[in-house]
Write a structure and sequence with these properties.
Chain A is an all-alpha fold and 189 residues long. Chain A contains six helices and two strands. In chain A, strand 1 and strand 2 form a beta hairpin. In chain A, helix 5 runs antiparallel to helix 6. Chain A starts with 6 loop residues before the first strand and ends with a helix. Chain B is mainly alpha-helical and 126 residues long.
């Protein structure tokens, strides 16, 4: 088996950690671009406020609460992993996955309601942005939950505990994206 | 457990509570329906929440300095690009240019018209 570089002497940090920060950097451009486009169109189209009035603030706020809680659980998993307690870290990661599942379930109900009221991705540009931004974000939540399950399974055996921090960083970034999506899509009406 | 670890864990709980309070303010503030209050409570607080998560949960301030520079560079270049194209998107006219709304409407290619024009007048008149 060929040796794997686990630490970069130039950057002074583990390779995995550096890779996750690179992922976050690329995601900043993806979501930043999406949010900036939305903002430009929203500011130049007053009529969008009529469409935005149809989004459900209570559901958006509930999902924000769910994601903030899941972020707290993810950082608690990191704290447990730092102490070498793999079982505790895994337990917190599973709670975080529970948060992800709750988020997706609420989002599914929300979309079902909106689509049944006739607001679809082709209705107009506001709803195109709405479904694209929230959809890409939800895909990140689902992908994060899958990766977290793999990390949790290993962590429960006390293996690869450093990965708990890595998935945590990704998860907190997904939380940050939602922190900005919430006022844009649900509050500014 | 070392004192620093204990303090870290204690801080996570405190940060979480602060985030929840900020969430409540960002929901209640816009209910006053005053534009300035909405902007500050919804968007200003979103910035504070994001910063708290980045610093206290992601520990970006404990990572090597170049990580913060990397994130800032991505953000700034993305914003520069959007600042550059924003007049084209947000304005309908400017110095020596005017947005032609008809250009935004879909029209089939001219060749398609010509092949179906029995008198061979090309694509004019549509």
């Amino acid at each position: 088996m060929r040796p794997i570089a686990t630490t970069r002497s130039a950057s002074g940090m583990p390779t995995g950690l550096l890779a996750v920060w690179w992922v976050v950097a690329s995601e900043i451009v993806i979501f930043g671009g999406l949010l900036a486009s939305y903002l430009m169109y929203r500011l130049s189209h007053d009529s969008w406020s009529e469409q935005a009035a149809n989004t459900n603030t209570a559901i958006g706020a509930t999902n924000t609460f769910v994601l903030l809680t899941s972020s707290f659980l993810a950082v608690s998993a990191h704290a447990a992993a730092e102490k070498g307690d793999g079982k505790k870290a895994a337990r917190y990661l599973w709670y975080t996955i529970g948060g992800a599942a709750t988020f997706v379930a609420i989002k599914s109900y929300e979309w079902y309601t909106e689509i049944s009221h006739g607001f679809t991705i082709t209705s107009n540009t506001f709803w195109s942005f709405y479904y694209t931004a929230a959809g890409i974000h939800a895909l990140h939540v689902i992908a994060g939950a899958f990766i977290m399950a793999i990390v949790a399974r290993e962590a429960a055996k006390g293996l690869e505990l450093h990965r708990v921090e890595l998935i945590g960083i990704y998860w907190h970034f997904v939380d940050i994206v939602w922190i900005f999506l919430f006022p844009l899509l649900y509050i500014a009406k | 457990m070392s004192e620093q670890e204990h303090e870290h864990e204690h801080n996570y709980g405190k940060v979480y509570l602060i985030l929840l309070v900020l969430l409540a303010v960002s929901i209640l503030g816009p209910m006053l329906e005053i534009q300035v209050v909405t902007l500050i409570t919804a968007f200003g607080i979103a910035g504070v929440k994001a910063l708290l998560v980045a610093r206290k949960f992601m520990h970006i301030n404990e990572a090597p300095k170049f990580i913060s520079y990397l994130m800032t560079t991505c953000l700034v270049f993305m914003m520069l690009f959007f600042a550059g194209v924003s007049p084209d998107v947000m304005e309908s006219s400017g110095d020596n240019w005017k947005k032609n709304l008809k250009m935004w409407l879909y029209s089939p290619p001219p060749a398609h018209h010509a092949s179906h024009d029995p008198e061979g007048h090309g694509s004019g008149g549509h």
